[in-house]
């Protein structure tokens, strides 16, 4: 399951009672009416303007008989011309993640305070003004998908299966989730008179997959013209996992991120710990060339290759990635992310993060061959992010103590149906094909893909591989941009990367409409 990598919702005690009673009768719950709203002032980076903050619910489903209520938090510049002011809809991934990570970590006007090198500070959680917010460039609407944050299913509860209404399962699927996001965006634009605004979608991790799919689905199924799609640490189409030894793409696309991770720890091709993407530019270039040339040839030819040449390539693999030559040979040059996370600093009794390999911690299970995702350092972030958001919402007058804000729902993730099409002939979703169609049918669409170089879970070179092979027409190829930053899945936790990300965002929004 991907991490990602939202806002909050509210409910009165009366609404809870209505839901409980309604469920017993097979009726629908009332949509929660509690809301928070205030006006605040932006006065950072030489700009000065007022903006409204609004937190609340929007119903999905038939009018008068909704199936779900979606919690969202919006930031809207006061007095702006809707035809010139972009509006960006933001979501994280998981599946099962609320948008709290992008909301309070990167794009909102307030953020969780981290150290300069991207580490979480000691409790209690500290909020600070975010000079790298996207608010100077665009209005922002942070969306919590059904089952995450405060959002919930409220449809017919007469038929129960496993203690849950059967209808909720529709939202725990690729198709149902995308349909819900599309419906939310269409309704929000209509209710807030924003159809003339440039519309942008931005998603992290599985949310990046969503953003790619919506490039096709928003104009096709919801009649919403799209100006931009931002994919943050995205996973386009799953190549497969550790056991896919016969397919070269997953292995070759990981090598540059392994090289960057090693350099961040002073290993591999680096003589010392490198702390900027500029400092390791030469290393990345060398790793990319090795990946697509000698290493790919090794993966394709396999045992048909001369043994001495195999040994030479595996030696080079070990040198670039920082693992031992013996380990590289033992794995036949095929090292999974979790194996790499355990192996890189094994001699120090440490493991690095799968989601951010700049972070090294004591290995809690040194006897294990590979690290588990539950041991990943970033999995401790849900608590601080949740605490920061709930505190912030209380400042704008929103309070919902009777409902738990679910930052990362394991139940949603475990129930997710990744396949599309007929149940008898399910097919894997093809986000790259959807994005290509979106670009082909809309020559004005701008696509911005961003990655952290030390993200082992969604390697940046995987996106580069997809872009190079998805058949983008020459006429719109310049509309696709790929940027890589120092850090991992949530590279914006590193101060310098956050600043660079914001500067590049300004250029992206300036390019809309060109």
Automatic annotation (TrEMBL):
<keyword id="KW-0378">Hydrolase</keyword>
<dbReference type="InterPro" id="IPR001563">
    <property type="entry name" value="Peptidase_S10"/>
</dbReference>
<keyword id="KW-0325">Glycoprotein</keyword>
<dbReference type="Pfam" id="PF00450">
    <property type="entry name" value="Peptidase_S10"/>
</dbReference>
<keyword id="KW-0121">Carboxypeptidase</keyword>
<keyword id="KW-0732">Signal</keyword>
<dbReference type="InterPro" id="IPR029058">
    <property type="entry name" value="AB_hydrolase_fold"/>
</dbReference>
<protein>
    <submittedName>
        <fullName>S10 family peptidase</fullName>
    </submittedName>
</protein>
<keyword id="KW-0645">Protease</keyword>
